[in-house]
Amino acid sequence: MSFRKRNAVISSSNLTQSASSKTENASIPGVRPSPLDGRSTTSTGTASLDSLLAGHAGLPLGTSLLIGEHGTTDFAGVLVRYYAAEGMVQGHQIHVLGLHEHWRHELPGLSTDEKKSSGKSESSSDDKMKIAWRYESLASGGAPRDRNAIQRQSNSTTGTSSIFCHSFDLTKRLHPTDAKGQIGFHPSMSISGLSSRTKDSPSPFKQFINDVAYKLGNSPSSWIHRVIVPGLLTPTSYSSSSTRPEEVLQFLHALRALLRQYPARLTAIVTMPLSLYPRNTGFTRWMELLSDGVFELIPLQSSAVHAPPPSSKSDSKSDEQTQGLMKVHGLPIFHEKGGGSSESYAAHGDLSFSLSRSKGLVIKPFYLPPVGEDEQEKRMSESSKGNMDF
Fold first, then answer.
1. How far from 64 is each of 24, 95, 123, 152, 305, CA to CA, in Å?
2. pTM to 2 decimal places
3. With the C-alpha atoms ordered 91, 97, 102, 108, is the resulting torsion angle positive or negative?
4. Which secondary structure element, helix H or strand E, spans residue 151, and what is its range?
5. pLDDT tens digits, residue range 49-58?
6. Of 57, 142, 239, 331, which shows the fewest CB atoms inside 10 Å?
């Protein structure tokens, strides 16, 4: 039984405090709750890859991805560059292992359409805030309201409408004004840097893990960190002493421990060449077991693989040209529903990918054209050429 008077007005102080706490949790840039279970997720920079991650529409924080690629192509490197560029635009802290600082200048830049849409949204939100704050008191029956609370609500609405996954252009480079985050390189894994290594010196893997753990422990809780390990165990970047199974597995185990220790602040993507370390070996299987998500890229051996990516003004048929196949061997699944993977096309058939300048790596279902469709196209082209001849 309630003892409160019926006509008493409830104070809005508790409501404003709860609203401010919610806005503080939701104000982290580049992070949004999963549509399945509400856990925090961040974007990989590739929209088609986000849609594959077990229905979470992004990479859940505290998880890692292992991407293996066959052949000598670098499609996995495109995914890693988009992952790093997305983190730089969102203001995240990025830790790169095995590369030098010149890799920073290879990150793709924001597309022109992205900048135009962001500018229009900011101007419209500012006009709405300037006009509507004077009429906020009408909803409360003419009673005056706190202007600071109104500003907090407007900031929360603009923050929630921020872009989760940006669109990048491979023909452009990331401008320093668009990069809000920080990136750190650890090129100690190169062969030239390991020439003076002795038996008593610590492993470069351990140095990298200790550095990342130190930065995680001494940074604010609102900072999101991204770990990037491109081309793990490649002979051009790693010496023979660093490719021993005991060192690599200990490194992945320590990285997994950091992900579990900071489940709301850290994500990681690791790429490796499957031509040198195939999946039928126990070493590669152990690496997959220590990763939350496992993908396999199989480029098609054709002239289209080595051709430059099509432009945004090209025909749709050239954009839809398949350049490789993708296999999903593991997804970060967290609850009894299966993480939503049964609803996506990842569990029903093969996947293919194509490279576009405006969309990056586009992942889509793979299907063969109907029998005779190619012959009909050839006949149509030959007939059109015959009509043009005089």
1. 26, 14, 37, 34, 28
2. 0.76
3. negative
4. helix 147-160
5. 998 887 788 9
6. 142
